[in-house]
Amino acid sequence: MLAHNVSAEIRRAISRGEFAPGQKLNEVALAERFGVSRNTLREAFAMLTSEGLCERIPNRGVFLATPSPEFVTDTFRARAAIEPAALLWGPDLDVDRLEELNAEARVAIEEEDDDLFIAVNQAFHHVVLASMGSKTLGDTMDQLDAFMRLATLPILERDPSFNRHFIDVNERIVEMVKAGDRQGASDYLQTQLLAQSEEIIEMIEKINNGDVN
Prior knowledge:
It holds the Pfam family FCD. It comes from Corynebacterium jeddahense. Residues 1-67 form the HTH gntR-type domain. By secondary structure, the protein is mostly helical. The chain has helices at residues 2-15, 27-34, 38-51, 69-89, 95-110, 114-130, 135-158, 166-178, 182-208; strands at 54-57, 61-64. Strands 1-2 form a two-stranded antiparallel ribbon. Strand 1 (54-57) and strand 2 form a beta hairpin. Helix 4 (69-89) crosses helix 6 (114-130).
């Protein structure tokens, strides 16, 4: 249980952008940070490695994953499977909270607070998934948050405002749900998530080829 909690805390730290893709995870520093033994930390690393968030390299240590096209595609296909289903079938969709989050996102954009915008955007999608009332799906979304942050961090380092245009998608979703068109909202979100995947892959390839400053 303790290792599970530590792995969850590391995922959250990744989601907040505290670690970079390919970065080595320092056992001593993290064991001290979380107040656990190195054996417990290694158990947590093993969990993260099994999820694909980390890679253990013999005689070198544990490193965070580096986003590849396959990494991004897999992450967004998972989102495109579960989030649209929640929009369509979730019995407890909190539309008022989604509207509040969109308003908070607009304030974050006006204040050019991109870290806040990312946090609010993550919360929006968690509220969508929470409508299913499934802890398993909630845990899955925590994992996907970490995957997505790793996938977009190389882009955000060059363009911190990259995520801002996702607010248009979120606002359109709320409009459709309020109009009673949950099927349309579900289809729209699925289409947008798959399009975002292609956009992120294209940006990463440009960065890797030196085409983005």
